[in-house]
Amino acid sequence: MTKDINYSIEEIDKTAKIVLSLNPSAKIFIFNGEMGSGKTTIIKALIKELGYEGTVSSPTFSLINEYFNGNKIYHFDFYRIKSRNELLDIGIDEYISRNDWCFIEWPSLIADMLPDKYIELNIDVISNDDRKLRINY
Ligand SMILES: Nc1ncnc2c1ncn2[C@@H]1O[C@H](COP(=O)(O)OP(=O)(O)O)[C@@H](O)[C@H]1O
Ligand SMILES: [Mg+2]
């Protein structure tokens, strides 16, 4: 199914709640959208909505950030990755098959490794503070 949501930065927590409610059995989320569109920002809101209270930072340089709130939460950013082999080296297939929460920016290299159940979020910039989210779930 598909759902569209327009949201401002003030509405991001409410938006995260809706995103998590769409398919409660899906724990893999992939994010498409240009640099600066808001992938990291909505992922921060989603991780907060899952009950994690600490600081969430961008994994652009670290590749993977890991959080724990009773469940494991992984935030990936594959922007700098050039080849699929680099992802196989870090064991990406295991990360996405373990039923942990995974939030993935720049997911194109792993498109064919995704499990049956995942949620795809496409973000478009409408104006400085407004974004359009198209969610396939
Ligand atoms: N509605 C919105 N949703 C998300 N980010 C927004 C919104 N409005 C403004 N912004 C700003 O846009 C920027 C998005 O950056 P970021 O989330 O790092 O993008 P990306 O991870 O896609 O490169 C942030 O500076 C954020 O404050
Ligand atoms: Mg980012």
Automatic annotation (TrEMBL):
Compartmental location: Cytoplasm
GO biological process: tRNA threonylcarbamoyladenosine modification
GO cellular component entries: cytoplasm
Main localization (coarse): cytoplasm
Gene3D superfamilies with a match to the protein in the record: P-loop containing nucleotide triphosphate hydrolases (3.40.50.300)
Alphabetized GO MF terms: ATP binding; metal ion binding
One Pfam family matching this protein: TsaE
Keyword entries, A-Z: ATP-binding, Cytoplasm, Magnesium, Metal-binding, Nucleotide-binding, tRNA processing
Family classification: Belongs to the TsaE family.
Identification of the protein by name: tRNA threonylcarbamoyladenosine biosynthesis protein TsaE
Organism: marine metagenome
Organism phylogeny: unclassified sequences, metagenomes, ecological metagenomes
